[in-house]
Amino acid sequence: MSNTAAPEKKERKRSSFWQELSVPALAVLTGLILGGIVILVSGENPIRAYGALFTGSFGSPARFIDGFQAYFSTGETRLLLRAFYPFTESLVTATPYIFAGLSVAIGFRCGLFNIGAEGQFFIGALCCAFVGYSISGLPMVIHLPLAILGGALGGAIWGMVPGYLKARFGAHEVVNTIMMNWIAFKLSDWLLNGPMKASGFRPVTPNVMATAELPRFFPDPLRFNLGFFIALLVAYLVYWFLFKTTLGFEIRSVGANPDAAKYAGMNIVRNFVLVMVLSGGLAGLAGTAQVLGVDHWVGQGFSAGYGFDAIAIALLGKSHPAGVVMAALLFGFLRSGATNMQSIARIPIDIISIIQGMVIIFIAAPAIIRWFYRIRAVKSDETVLTRGWGS
Amino acid sequence: MTNSTLEISSAAEKRRRISFGITLIVVGLVIYLLFGLNTVPGTMTTFGLNLLGSQAMEVPDLVVPALPAIYFMAAIAVFVGAYQLARGVRSNGLLIGILAFTFVFAFLMWAAQDKSFNLTGMLQSSLVRATPIALAALCGVISERSAVINIGIEGIMLMSALVAVVTATVSGNLYVGLVSAILMGGLVSAFHAFLVIRFKVDQIISGVAINIFGAGATSFISSRFMAHATDTLNNSGTFPIIAIPGLSKIPILGPVLFENNLIVYLTIILVIIMHIMLFYTPWGLRTRAVGEHPKAADTLGVNVYLTRYVNVTLGGMIAGLGGAYFTIGSVGRFDEILTAGKGFIGLAAMIFGNWNPIGAYTSSLIFGFADSLQVKLQILRVPIPSEFLLMAPYIVTMIILTGVVGRAIPPAADGQPYEK
Fold it and tell me: pTM for this one?
């Protein structure tokens, strides 16, 4: 990560952007190649599979042509909307990833490893759904922000617990956030089968009120909504907070060197709690974006994999908000395309997790990528992210 | 125990004494208010001491009048708490033991009033459920004693579990499955060691990547290949119960300890071997030196990197055995994410056990107990939603990690890469 305090020379600055980008890009490329080998070994054609992945994430050119022809000749938009559907769906998928990636990234900046984005996501989703369906009669300008706030608060509380335990007792946040995940799953099982269950057989919450839904920009099959732009705005806010405010500087200092930060009079305990609250809140917003923007209700297994995806995204984005947005877009396109790949090429969607695991290893071990592709070392590659079990 | 000023060395020690005493008294009151007032007077709680189908001699069941027994438990807790405040008890372990014992038994009396509760059966299932947790904890102990954190145990166990069931089913031999699971665990761990030692990858990140990869790869394989070929790939059967002649005849102890399957026995043997290896052999001394002060060990001619490679790989093999437990040791087939966080709970057991094999095994037994209690209570239809009971092991883990119940000190160099 680029938070090493050493002053860089000016001449390096220009090329450093591309150097920073080269390792993540090659890591993803290598991950995809190895994933292709896995597909090949499992008896499918990787080119066909990745073709399905591509059309599933961007849309197929043929459909675009058909869509535009139909639109210009008859003014009929149905085909055009269908052509744009995969692309917008990828952006929709990327939206919670942006929030979740920011959640893990802000933790990394303070030297905290939040594996609990998954549980915070779920609890955030449940809270915003509760605010969304239980209150009625409010105008949208009040109800929607209230629901969003509820989701953020839910996640923040779920993140605060491990943050406090870390700050007060030095209990390692990695294990605690994972435990909080399991507790969240069990709690949601109970809520969805009991107090929050909608009438009917399935263990799901009622639909949120129309006044709590994030507005969509296009007619129905397209689910592209305001959440995407809120995510971009929040990414900018996180950037501003981390790099332009005193508190953000403190957080980064604690992350870079806790001993020095302590010596400089910074309150490490407060920073740990604050960062875990923010991190949890961002993960809660990820769940909120999914509920209010896409599904409008919460069911079991709702959070499936977001927490681990978020780690990959934060690492890939080098814990920088701009990088996180790019990485989240990439994962949005991959995940959304993988659904198509599963139905066309019968490749289980878990292939993405395999690729993800490899990408994380390559990002964490830039030496492998550099050795493989003969790239020069970048100084910012080497940073210790986590420190043993102690505080 | 005297309460001389020399013994109470610091204010922190005094605070600990007072807080423990108050906690015990509060627990006594909670027992009275929560269980005592909600128990119907005159009801009996029956604790079954015989296990159906076991070889042990039959003994009569233990029948206890519920209400007096609950009051008795409350009284013990309050009394010990008061004694602790007045005089102070040195041993933390004893206090925690009394606290847990009184609370759990009062809870059981209340939960099983007017019903029968098989105590022997629960102790037996505690030991069985503790086994994978203990194996994960032992994996943690052996690699962290050489200062390498392996948080990828969960992923390693998943992959080993899958390999075990597939190889056992294909070869028709459970031992083939066992050996391949162990080898698989060793292989993945060796890769982890390679990444963190050779490439100095952040140890936690590498572990997390192994977990993601393990979960993805096993889900991929099981849904792509095994879902439609259950009989040919995913149906291995399990290791039979081996009753140790003679010993299994002992009532209560016999069915709990001496009627288990191979993996449970292996775990107990492993704990003893590892304890001896770590503390009474040159290898153990070198390992601990590498974990505490690698530079000093290096100066004295210990090969730091080699020690770490060997330990992490051995640890992986133990985790592989733990993975085998999930399939060929218990259910005979693989389901997605069947480890359910046991690898991480094992890490908590390792911390609570202070990085000692025996301590780790003891704390695994506590988790095993919490786990099997939760199952038994569902059967008893306790008026608590089962989801809350299912949270118990995770909450216990978090409480233990706070260090309130005894602070654990990791090996000094734990988690740090070593550079010559």
Answer: 0.83
